[in-house]
Every structure is written in C-alpha cells, then in structure tokens.
Amino acid sequence: MSWPQDKDFRDTGLYVGGIFDKGKFTGGNTYGTHKAVKVYYSPDVAEWLRGGRKGELKDGATIIKEMYDEPANQNKKEDNSNLAIMIKDKNGAWDGWFWSDGSGSATVLYEIPLKTRSTQPISVTATLYYQSIPPYYLKQRFTGLREPATLSLQYYVQNLNTNYIDPQWTNMLGVAPIRDWKLKITSVSKNMR
C-alpha cells in the first residue's frame, strides 16, 4: 500500500510481565486498547497529523490498522488478516467513525423456531445494544496493575449502579439508559404471518 504508514509495528499500551523463552514472550498482560498494530493513513489523515491535528478530519478520511499479537516487537506476520478499518463519517455513527473488520459483512439473520402454527399475526422485535464496558476489557485493565488510576476505575465500575434512574427522570426514561452496562442503539418490530 502506498499510503503513509507507521515505520514498524507498535503496541497500543503497556505489555507487563511475561517470560522470554525460545525467542518469544509468553504469559504477560497487555494494557493497550487492542492488539499491537501497524497503521496506514489515507493522505488526508497524514496531512492532518503533520499539521498538528488542527480542525476536523473530512468525511472519508481513512485509517487501517493491521493487528498482531502482543508484544509488537516479536509478532511480525505477513499473513495477517486481523484488521480494524476506520472511515470518518460524522453523521454515520455516534463517535463519527464507521468501523469495520474488513470482512464486508453487515447482514444479521435470525431464525426463530415457532412451536405452534398460528393464524394470527406474530410480532417480532429485534433490538441492537452496544456493550458499553465489555467484561473482557475490564478484566484486562484490572489484572496485575495496582496503580491509583486503575484502582480508582475498578472502584467506580464495581460500585456504579447502572440500573439506577434518578426519580426526576423516571417518567421520561422508564429504564436506565445503560442498564447492565448495555446501551440500546435501536429496536424494530414487525408483524409476521
């Protein structure tokens, strides 16, 4: 690819512990946002970075991350198919980025077996949630690190009642917006025959 790119693979956070054996680290903990990466930048992103990140990126700006096992200095594979693709789209997603793993799939198909036949319409509802704090993410953050910031985050997560609704909002909300750490994105119902 001819786009500007990182000079080499890099970790996205600390890699702590582990044993170096037979030319490879094993048993350590990673505290990055995701796996080690090599990042490719579309020309407009590269220009924005060189310009000190001033202003907003234009829609269509693209970042492609090749992701590898950590730590980055030992896992340089040419046959990698683990990608994170980010395309700037300020109106297309809540965070202003369209995310993809490069697979091109976006279809969700559910088959719902019915125990009996009915002559009456059946209502089917599908709801999409965003897991706001994935359990695996928290487990990574709390394993092995005892720094004040990590301990503080652990305390808040363990003591925050995500099912609580302030009484002044009860009539408007009905249920907590991040109940059980899940944020409802959308829901659709359809009557089927």
Shape summary: extended
Helix/strand/pairing category: alpha+beta
Q: Secondary-structure element sequence?
A: EEEEEHEEEEHHHE
Helix percent band = 10-25%
Q: What's the end-to-end separation, in Å? A: 51 Å
Explained architecture:
The strands form 4 sheets. The chain has a 4-stranded antiparallel sheet with strand order 5-6-7-8. A hairpin with a 2-residue loop joins strand 2 (19-21) and strand 3. The protein contains 4 helices and 10 strands; from the N terminus they run E-E-E-E-E-H-E-E-E-E-H-H-H-E. The model has no long low-confidence stretch (mean pLDDT 78). It is an alpha+beta fold. The longest helix is centred in the C-terminal third of the chain and has 12 residues, at 148-159. It starts with 14 loop residues before the first strand and ends with a strand. The chain is 17% helix and 28% strand.
